[in-house]
Specification:
- By secondary structure, the chain is mainly alpha-helical.
- 38% of the residues lie in helices and 4% in strands.
- It has a domain at 42-130.
- It is globular.
Length: 144
């Protein structure tokens, strides 16, 4: 609630953060580091939670959801974290929302072969449009 959000790739600044997501090249939930940008990273929902069926490689969003989704949903709903309502909603949200983010962020095609049409309105694409272009002289991500 009182968190300060810092956007940086500076390792010295990242070392001082309580939680680091999608940067830093490290997945270590004990230290709250949730990045998937390592060659050795292969985690999926199934590998981290064997009771779940999904084998799509997790993105940083998926890692955060995997570790905190049930807790957040339980708090929002006022339901027990291991209860049937939270469990059903957790599974549906992953299957119908977060898994797409994981797949898109990891470059996993929705089907084998050449796509028949472009997927240009995915959540990942919409978020990407908020970032500065690679050749934009002003790379300040805080300017809107």
């Amino acid at each position: 609630q009182d968190a300060e959000i810092v956007r940086t790739r500076d390792p010295q600044l990242l070392a001082r953060c309580d939680v680091v997501v999608d940067v830093g090249g490290e997945y270590d939930p004990e230290r709250h580091r949730y990045d998937h940008h390592q060659r050795s990273f292969t985690e999926s929902m199934r590998s981290l939670r064997p009771d779940k069926p999904w084998s799509t490689k997790l993105s940083s969003a998926g890692l955060v959801y995997c570790h905190f989704g049930s807790q957040i949903l339980a708090g929002l709903l006022g339901q027990p974290e291991d209860g049937p309502v939270v469990t059903a909603l957790y599974d549906k949200l992953y299957e119908n929302f977060v898994e797409e983010i994981d797949a898109m962020d990891n470059g996993i095609a929705p089907a084998p072969g050449e796509p028949r049409y472009a997927l240009s309105t995915t959540l990942s694409a919409r978020v990407g449009h908020l970032n500065p272009r690679w050749n934009d002289p002003d790379q300040d991500t805080e300017v809107g």
